[in-house]
Each structure stands twice: as C-alpha cells, then as structure tokens.
Amino acid sequence: MAHIIRRMPLSEEVLRDIYFSDQSMYPAPLTYDRLQSWVKVCPELALSYVAPTKDKDATEPPIVIGAAIVLPVQGKYWRDLVVGKIKEIEIDAATMLTIQTGEEVGLHIFHIEKFDSWQQLGEGFDGKLRPFAEYVTADMGEIVLQRGWKVLGFSALTATSAGQKCCTRMNYKPSGYQEIFVQTAKSGGKIEMYCMFPGESGPMLEEGDEVINRSDMMVRFGDPAGAVGVNGSTAG
Q: Of 56, 82, 162, 215, whose CA is between 20 and 30 Å from 89?
C-alpha cells in the first residue's frame, strides 16, 4: 500500500522555526506575535505535511517534510497588498483577514517550504511523489470550496530564487512591487528596507552600500481552480 503524505495543523515548534528562518534571510520587522495572530485567524491554512519514510517502522511517528502558511486577505486589502500600498508585515489579523463564507478574498502565500527531510522520500508515496507545491495548492483549492470564497487571485512575496521559480511555474507574474534590503555605509552597516512601487526605478545606492536581499511580489489573478494548480503545473 502506498504511503500517504498527510497535512496536519502547524505546531508551535514548526512555526517558530519558520519565523527565525525567514528573519535570517528576509530581515523585515515582522514580530512573532503578528505571525501567530495570522495563524490563529485561519489555522486550516497553516499546515505541516508529514509522511513516514519507507525504511521506518509503521509504528514510529511520521516526519515533518514541509509547511505552508496562507493568509485569506479581504479583497479590498489584498488589492493594496499586491502593489505595496499595504506591506506584508502590516497585515492586521483582526481587520484584514477573514474566514467568513462567501467573502471576496485574495490568498497570500506567506510561506511554503519543503524541508531537508523531503529528500528522504521517493517513489511509493501516493503511488508517485508529486512536487511539494502540488500538495499545498490542492489543499488550498479544497479549503476555497469549503469556504465558498470568491477568490480574486493569489500572491506571494518571494525572497529566494526557488520561490520565484515556483511562482513562475504556477503562472504568477511580478506585480512590480519590490522590497530591497540594503546594508548602507552611512549607517555603519545597518540594514534599511527600500520599497519600489510599480513603474519606479530602484534606490540610488551610495559608495559602500550593498544590496543583501530583494523580494518580488508575485501575483496570479483569476480562476481559483487554475491558480492553485489542481490541473496545472506546479513546482516545489
């Protein structure tokens, strides 16, 4: 019988690991309390993925192979989010997120990651191991149907080349909004965030300044069934 990759609620331990990992490569001033508040609003979109390895005894606990956090942003706020009028770190759980049935929403992928343990897997899971993002996007589609949401589109602020490739394969496009992190000489090496809005050029760098990271807002508008990749090509 094929082993099954299953989704489970995101544990506090995994959430903390995600937070510190993100802060190390994407130094935006997001607090852990705010991240927790997002997860509490819609826990069914904060997921761990687990599976047994093929060489493990069936009685042993499964290993965590990946995780995802998706935010159901009210439509009026999501439109501003994708062009930078609202920053990702400014999303307020109490006023901007929703779990109401039939609501107009944009689904913002805050985090999607397959862990090193994913590499331990191989053929024999669900019959054939699929790209990790397919498991996440299929679950997103299921939750959309359960909630009856009117989905405007999907977005992700990508801070790595892997994230950008994943979004590109799912037919997401850059919105034109970027967050650029610069280690500035004038501040003695402190990191400053510059926001570049659609149609604007990048920050004017001075001698000794160094760009240490750049994040691009990626967006896909339209039909939720196609956007979540239920029948399309995904990566991950």
A: 162
Cα 109 to Cα 67: distance, rounded to the nearest angstrom = 11
Q: What is the pTM of this model?
A: 0.84
Using an 8 Å Cβ cutoff, are 118 and 132 in contact? yes
Give the Cα separation of 166 and 62 in Å (integer): 26
CA 80/CA 64 separation, integer angstroms: 34
Quick check: 45 and 99 in contact, CB under 8 A?
no
Instruction: Tell me the angle at which helices 32-41 and 12-25 cross, rounded to the nearest 10 degrees.
Output: 130
207-222 confidence digits (pLDDT tens)? 888 888 889 999 999 7
**In angstroms, rounded to a whole number, what is the distance separating the alpha carbons of residues 153 and 84?**
16
Stretches in the chain below the pLDDT threshold 70: 1-3, 53-59, 122-129, 223-236
